[in-house]
Structures are given as C-alpha cells and as structure tokens.
Amino acid sequence: MSPNRSQSPPDATGTPDRRPLIAFTWLWVGVPLAYGLYELVRKATQLFTG
C-alpha cells in the first residue's frame, strides 16, 4: 500500500506561518461576540431587576 501524501505534514520550507492570521481571525470574531454577550447580560439584568 502506498502512503497517502495528502495526509503528510507540510514541509517546513516554503509554507507561510498562518498563526498570526488565525489569531487575528479569532479576535475579529471574538471581540464583538464578547461585547454582545456583555451587553446582553447587562440589559437582561436591568430588565429583570428593574
């Protein structure tokens, strides 16, 4: 049986490091999500406590 080349790890040479892009993407989604959840909890507290 021949090895499947698509499952082998990428070469260290010639492949760009995508960790900064991944971190930026998580921040791009996570910051507005966290702010929205904060506002939801704040307004729900006002709604139920008067």
Report the biggest beta sheet as strand number plus sense, adding barrel if it closes: none
**Shape designation:** elongated
Low-confidence stretches: none
Mean pLDDT score, rounded? 86
Q: List the total number of helices.
A: 1
Radius of gyration: 22 Å
Describe the fold and architecture.
This protein has 50 residues and is mainly alpha-helical. It has one helix at 19-49. The termini are far apart. The relative contact order is 0.07. The mean pLDDT is 86.
Properties at a glance:
mainly alpha; single chain; 0% strand; 50 residues
Summarize the structure.
Helices cover 62% and strands 0% of the residues. The chain has 50 residues and is mostly helical.
Layout: helices, strands, pairs:
Layout: H1 19-49
